[in-house]
Amino acid sequence: MKKLVLSLLLGILSLSITAQITLNVQTIPANTPMGDPIYVVGNFNNWDPADPNMVLTAAGNGSYTLVIYPDPGLVEFKFTRGNWDKVEGNANGGYLPNRTFNYDGQAVSIDIHILSWEDLSPVGGTAADNVFILDPNFYMPELQRNRRIWIYLPPDYQSSNKFYPVMYMHDGQNLFDASTSAFGEWEVDESLNELFAQGDYGCIVVGIDNGESHRLDEYSPWINPDYGGGEGEAYINFVLNTLKPHIDSSFRTLPGRNTTAIMGSSMGGLISMYALAEHQDKISKAGIFSPAFWFAGSAPADHVTSSGKQADVRVFFLAGGDEPASVTTNLNTVADAMLSVGFGTDEQFRQLPADGEHSEWFWRREFPAAYQWLFAGGISKSKQATPSAKLRIIPNPAGDWVQLAGLPANKKSQVQIYTMDGKLMQDTTIYGNQALNTSMLPPGQYSLRARQGKGKWIQGRLVRK
Fold it and tell me: What pLDDT is recorded for position 31?
């Protein structure tokens, strides 16, 4: 009897060893956000796109692997980054039918290439292949709206381990694709690709669509009695407190103030100047193109004066001779206000071409020079491979409780948890290595960040079972 039981056990063990499929993912898309888990989903796990038992393991050199144990027969599967909105696509970023494999129950290894992600597929139109839609409906908790977010990744993003500066730009519809711009595009992608070919280090650009009917409201913290405004502070808080942490935790960025820039034209120039003066601790560079300072009267200059100089900055001012004379006059007033509170002449550049108009063609022409001046000096080698600090979340995938390694011992820390589309789910304080309750989180992926006092945020990625 004992021999029969032993024989059965050995048979079951032998079957478990041979009845497996090893999935070897050889390559993943260049724009896969760093740290995003990659899952396999199929008819062997009820098509759960975030099954914590189906997360691929990094195998080095950009490859991933996972062993699955399906029943013999037709195996259907796909890859996701945690939900069906982030599923793999075909070579053009479109729909990819289910992968299939006729499995005979014997151990087998399959080599696979993930070609694209549908949510990060190349934009098409006139946009370069390294421009993607990060999210068509990124949630803006500060304004309780959703907005399309674009992202430009440098040409060597996939082939290098570099970390890049980031520039946040307004009016995303007009930056990369002529088909989404009513007045022509800036050709930011073509310009940066050309500069990269000439030796530029590279820069990630995040384009934020304007809110159309909300544009004037969002692009000014000050209210104009005839045109609106007043939501500019909430909009910039979204950029810096919601969008920026998401970008820094998802991509290889240099997140410090010295490698963070903001740029816009017209009303986008107004809000960029406000953002720089108000948040010198987070931004050091601004491109102020044909700014609509008229919208807020003396407020932009007064704000520069009241904010004062808190840190070194670089500001590229641009206005054209064929714009209304008030554009240049108001620009000079704001630029002079900077000098009056201690900013140096080397911290600003005033470009005033006589032929310049209030138009995309003008901003397109001047963009490369502005970018090069703002980032003059390049990125030092000491910063090239310096990622933002990371949290270790234990266990991860998580159950109802986790602990955070990397926080100061015996001190209070603020902890925030966001959904991957930017919705704040939890904002709490923990003490030292106190356990964090995650029982209220639905299964899925989350961005978690923590800081002590008003110090720098450190990031982590949480998977909830």
Answer: 76
Angle, in degrees to the nearest 10, between helices 360-374 and 188-197: 40
Has residue 381 got a pLDDT over 50?
no
Residues 419 and 135: their CA atoms lie apart, in Å, by 13
Between CA 326 and CA 328, with CA 327 as vertex, the angle to 5 degrees is 90
Query: Distance between alpha carbon 369 and the CA centroid of its chain, in Å?
Result: 25
Q: Which residue has the tokens 């409780």?
A: 401
Write out pLDDT tens, residues 71-103. 999 999 999 999 887 899 887 677 788 899 999
Task: Measure the CA–CA gap between 34 and 347, rounded to whole angstroms.
Answer: 34
Residue 347 has, within 13 A of its CA and on its CB side, a CA count of: 19
199 backbone φψ class: left, alpha, beta (φ>0; ψ -120 to 50): left
Check residue 179 and report its DSSP letter: G
> Taking the model in full, what pTM does it have?
0.69
To 10 degrees, what angle do helices 299-307 and 267-278 make? Answer: 20
Burial class (CB in 10 A: 0-12, 13-18, 19+), 419: middle
Confidence of residue 378 (pLDDT cuts 50, 70, 90): low
Cα–Cα distances (Å) from 254 to 105, 151, 162, 195, 279, in that order, read: 48, 15, 9, 19, 17
> Measuring CA to CA, which residue among 254, 255, 261 is closest to residue 379?
254
* CB-based contacts of 230, cutoff 8 Å, min separation 6: 217, 220, 221, 222, 223
